[in-house]
Amino acid sequence: MRITFLTIFPASFSSFPSCPVISRAVEKGIISFDVVDIREYADGCFRAVDDSPYGGGAGLLLRADTLTKALEDVKTGRSRTILLGPKGKKFTQTMAHELAGEKHIILVAGHYEGVDERFRSHIDDEISIGDYILTGGESAAMIVAEAVTRLLDGALRGSSAKEESFEDGILEYPQYTHPAVFEGKAVPEVLMSGDRKRIAYFNETEALKDTIRLRPDLLSNDRDFSCCSLHKDYGNEADIIRWIKERLPVPEILYEDETYLILSKKKGKSLKDCTKNRILKTCAAILKAFWAMDVSDCPCCESIEVAISKMKERKLSYAEWNMLQKLEGNTGLNEDRVFSHGNLKLDNIIVNGNGLLMLTGMQKAGTADRYRDLALLIPSLEEAGIRKEELFSLLGLEPDEEKIEFFGNLNSLLSG
Predict the structure, then answer these.
(1) How many whole angstroms separate alpha carbon 120 and alpha carbon 169?
(2) I need a surface site. Which of 53, 168, 278, 370 has the fewest CB within 10 A?
(3) Tens digits of per-residue pLDDT, 367-390?
(4) Residues ≥6 apart with Cβ < 8 Å to 224
(5) Which residues of the chain are in CATH 3.90.1200.10 domains?
(6) In CATH, what is the architecture of 2-149?
(7) pTM of the full predicted structure?
(8) Coil, strand, or helix at residue 205?
(9) Where are the beta strands (DSSP E) in 98-246?
(10) What is the pLDDT of residues 261-306, one digit of tens each?
(11) In angstroms, how far is the first alpha carbon of the chain from the final one?
């Protein structure tokens, strides 16, 4: 790879190639750097690269004609041109990986008040390293170049880049070295146990804890990791897991705060990957187990009234509001409340060779009409080639089509 810096202050880059990782990558021929002085392309004896903005305003702008001359002189058909400036997309590790696949990157260091707007038509992208203002883009260009360089094969020793902050969308786990005890604080025992499985489990859990505590903005969705799962708790899941764990196999709560849960995982497979016969029998057994529970002390209620009340608190489209009004006008259904999973799909049923291993995705669990789960499960069964009549036969029920339609529509609204 080749990286070219376009700048009006080339001396700013004098020490950059001497950084250990950078110099090693250069010595190995993994990457090369060029520093191009934009002033060399300026006209006139004063080589002016900037000028006052038309219409007035403080500061100076880099001229489009000079910048374009410099850029076009170093640009090839394989170049990716990037301006460093505050209007750009915020630089991330994902972007660093993307740029690491390029053959030639040209980084244009903005300066002063910025660049003439007309220059932007000559670049491919604009990148910002954060929501703050620097005197110039030289330091930002070096940050991008370093982040990209260390991702190139051979730039780092071993697998140093594989378990770092942001690589998996979260912060890196906390790490320790000698002494084993410092100011009365000991290194966690598990890290000195030599048990690689326990260490991996501990590290992943601690990394998620740090991310929840320090950078919750990185956690936008529920996610499965190697050893555990991260869930947003919408008010039900932690309470339900504590209530149901003696009755059915559910994840263990490894950590919880007001917003997130870290849950254990078990090695198994989704029920959707099993034979039709096993899918059918397992689903019927789970539903029967739900319906046989004493729910008098269940901590969460997901009745029709509660569900509609929750929907009214959300911003709804016209079509959603219209559907909600129709459902509300048909709430005279006789509710037969049992324990309800609330998201009973084949993906949330984990099994192994011995049977049911774990039920997951219980953020919306609570007491509700039994048709709430049936309406959720029927589409998953149909995708697996199983008719709803086969399930109802095992359950000893006659399908109530009115309830299937009602709860199908309600579930659709709640998941929208």
Answers:
(1) 31
(2) 278
(3) 999 999 999 999 999 999 999 999
(4) 230, 265
(5) 269-415
(6) 3-Layer(aba) Sandwich (3.40)
(7) 0.78
(8) helix
(9) 104-109, 125-128, 181-182, 185-186, 223-224, 228-232
(10) 999 999 999 999 999 999 999 999 999 999 999 999 999 999 999 9
(11) 45
What local confidence, expressed as pLDDT, does residue 156 receive? 86
Q: Coil, strand, or helix at residue 35?
A: strand
Backbone dihedral angles phi then psi of residue 332, each to the nearest 5 degrees = -80, 5
Q: For the chain, what's the residue count? A: 416
Distance CA 152, CA 27 (A): 13
CATH code, residues 269-415: 3.90.1200.10
Which residue type, as a one-letter code, is found at position 143? I
Instruction: Considering the chain, tell me which residue range(s) the CATH 3.40.1280.10 domain(s) occupy.
Output: 2-149
| Dist. CA 223–CA 243, nearest whole Å | 23
Q: CB–CB of 354/269 below 8 Å?
A: no
The reported pLDDT for the residue numbered 236 is 82
- Pairing mode of beta strands 125-128, 79-90: parallel
- Asked if residue 21 has pLDDT above 60, the reply is yes
Tokens (6 digits) for 83: 């301006």
pLDDT (tens digit, 9 = 90+) per residue, 339-349?
Answer: 999 999 999 99
> Would you call the peptide bond into 53 cis, given omega within 30 degrees of 0 as the criterion?
no
